Amino acid sequence: MEELGLLFRLILAFLFLSTFFSKISDMGTHLSIVRAYQIIPYSWSKGFTYLDLGLQATVAISLLIGLFTTLGLSLAILLLGAYTLAISINLARGRKKISCGCGGMAGNHFLSWKLVLRNLVFINLAVYVGQWSGGWVSVDHYLLYGSFEIANWVIAIFFSSVCISLLMAISGEINTFKHIFRKRQG
Asked: In the chain, pLDDT over 70 holds for what percent of residues?
């Protein structure tokens, strides 16, 4: 079970890392998407955007190296919960033609209940990691026990998580191209 915990921890790390870089590379678009949700006051949107990016970077680094993992997982659950709530509020308002603003390997899609379900899956992954990660290949484990526990199978798990993350990113890009193609057709 600890192997799956490590795999899921790294997948979540790559998810948050890729979305962070996607958003920071086009801050103007990300800020526009935050404002389009119409959840927080317009005057707070810029500060919220920077806070969101800071928290995403914290989660990504924490989960990638396994430092303050409990904090990183808690922040991941908090962020994913906030995103899920914001999407749900807009769907309840009938506002579906807004970009989710996810970016990275999560892709950019219009709001839908599928995104809510996807985020709930990610939240469950974070809970699972909190229960089963065991601290393998983490700075936390090294600081507590003085060992890093790297074995060949740990390296295999790392590369597996990279491959799964890349497949998720490619899938997101394919869906984006499908959407663009359909838009041009119709």
From this structure: 75
Instruction: State pTM to two decimals.
Output: 0.79
DSSP state of 99: B
Phi and psi at residue 71, to the nearest 5°: -65, -45
Dihedral sign (CA 30, 102, 47, 39): positive
Enclosing H/E stretch for 150: none
Q: Which residues contact 23 (CB under 8 A, 6 or more apart)?
A: 30, 52, 53, 56, 101, 103, 104
CB 154 within 8 A of CB 137: yes
Does residue 67 come out as left (phi exceeding 0), alpha (psi in the -120 to 50 range) or beta?
beta
Q: What is the pLDDT of residues 86-138, one digit of tens each?
A: 999 999 999 999 988 888 777 778 899 999 999 999 999 999 888 865 566 67
